[in-house]
Amino acid sequence: MDIIPAIDLIDGKLVRLSQGDYAQKTVYAEDPLEVAKSFEDAGIKRLHLVDLDGAKVKHVVNYGVLDRIVSNTSLIVDFGGGIQSDEDLEKVFDHGAAMVTCGSIAVKEPEKFTSWIEKFGSDRMILAADAKDKMIAVSGWQEDSKLPLFDYLKDYTAKGITKVLCTDISKDGMMQGPNTALYKEVMAEFPNIELIASGGVSKFDDLIALEEAYIPSVVVGKAIYENTISIEDIYSHMSK
């Protein structure tokens, strides 16, 4: 299982929210680049970078942080948050993102997102499936879409999507464990996708449980910054 650290950005700083609530914000680092370098030094290869400012205002804001991390580390960065236009997408790729994660645009403008899959290839596009009670939420989780999770995944896997970042909003940032049952259900229905589980990982045993459920990848955020999981333990486990 691939374990991917997350850096969430507000005002250029590394933060974490609880259940996507911007009012429940904790700032963990003033300079995300230093944190990214520490990940690289520990042997980590990949980073999930989220522009929470962009998700809120519906256009990418934190290009500068992306550029600094890509320019000063060898991390493979996937970037999400606020990508709503062709211009935003081009800029994100121009600033060094290897992949992009898109959710709101995939829900609200499926024709546009489908054209991006066709233009850039499914290997560079990650479909964000942010769900609560198996229903998709969008716009930084501020809106419910009334779209069932499994219908959404069925539609986009038919259009060529192979990478899915699935977040259980009720678990995110709560440090109460991931919704492993949901991810097992997704994998049973869509066995050929690269599923990236997200939300709720709080201890190393959570990672073992996901691995034993044959989940391909998992994003870890708050647990790293609250020191309940060490990045060194993550790397040593992945290196076995």
**Strand content of the residues, in percent?**
25-35%
Main sheet properties = 8 strands, parallel, barrel
The number of strands is 12
> H/E order of the elements?
EEEHEHHEHEHHEEEHEHEHEHH
Enumerate the strands of the largest sheet in spatial order, edge to edge or round the barrel. 1-4-5-6-7-10-11-12
Cα shape = globular
Give the uncertain stretches in residue-range form: none
Bin the helical content.
Answer: 25-40%
Rg over CA atoms, rounded to whole Å, is 16 Å
| Helix segment tally | 11
How far apart are the first and last residues' alpha carbons, in Å? Answer: 11 Å
Mean pLDDT: 91
Look at the helices and sheets and give the structural class.
Answer: alpha/beta
Kindly describe this structure.
This protein has 11 helices and 12 strands. Helix content is 38%, strand content 30%. β1 and β2 form a beta hairpin. The chain has 240 residues and is of the alpha/beta class.
